Amino acid sequence: MTPLVPLIEASRGATPECVHFGAVAVSDIHGHVLAHAGDPQFVTFTRSTLKALQALTFMQAGGPRAFGFTQEQVAMMCASHSGEAMHVRQVDGMLHKAGVSYRKLQCGCHVPLFVELGQAAGPYDERHHNCSGKHSGFLACCVQHGWSLENYLAPEHPLQQAIRRDVARAVGMAPEAMKMGIDGCSAPNYAVPLANLARGYARLASGEDDPEFGLSFAHLADAMTAHPELVSGTGRNDLAFMRAGRGDWISKAGADGVQVVASRSRREALAVKVSDGSKIAVAAAAVAAMDQLGWLDERQRAELQPWRAETIASIRGAPVGARRAVFALQRAR
Length: 333
Hints:
Layout: E1 5-12, E2 15-28, E3 33-37, E4 43-45, H1 51-54, H2 56-60, H3 63-67, H4 71-77, H5 85-98, H6 132-145, H7 158-171, E5 179-182, E6 188-193, H8 194-206, H9 214-226, H10 228-231, H11 237-245, E7 249-254, E8 258-263, E9 268-274, H12 279-292, H13 298-308, E10 311-313, E11 319-325, E12 330-331
Antiparallel strand pairs: 1-2, 1-11, 2-3, 2-9, 3-12, 4-6, 5-6, 7-8, 8-9, 10-11
């Protein structure tokens, strides 16, 4: 099996210009591969798609209830947010409830995505980092268990050891089988086969029916689908996908070309990796995969049409090229 196949092709005029290679895996809650393009066992770092699974340790310990976290704040633990005012307010609230200063956040600081939206720039700090909700959950979990706040990102820290254990359980792997790397926010991240990542999200979508994580998965899924604007932000694809899903789809993007979408009614999920990391291509491939799976009705097809990004335009808005999906999912026999 070819590990990576052409997923999206872009042309300028009548001449092909770019081909985005990648792989797609569709799995159910048991890890059965239902459909694929390329190798469904292709191993990739999960990046920010991991966030909902990294929250399991805190959820399983009853952390949100212990600190009085709202559903919005649970959604923030799964967020790759844009640093908009609504996001910073939620992070402030989480840290206040945990009794921790934002200066304890070890995610660092970057120019937030809201600056690209034309909102006022600066000043900004760690709270504006797209991972600050996840890190606020990390700190609250440490406070709850009496663990050190100073080295909470160290792979050997009890928090990270517990997260590795719970993520492995969710995706159906042994903890030592998941290859570890450090994410952009300095937290440990794991590389897993696409089929296992999809399995983890299919289980997330199954909610209370999951025999192992039940209420934790249900609360995470409810929070993400109820507050997609917090999970992502204005103009972002996860917001558009979850709104189009009308409560059925859980969508989470990750850096460098990773995207997961799960269907709660179907109890299955798809995971996409575009090897060159293109945000445009991975969103287009995800929409094409959902369409091929029969997930889209006419209204949803229209709502997600912009994310196919079929027209390539000049700076002046004139059409100068085209982009199209060039893969066909192979169904399991």
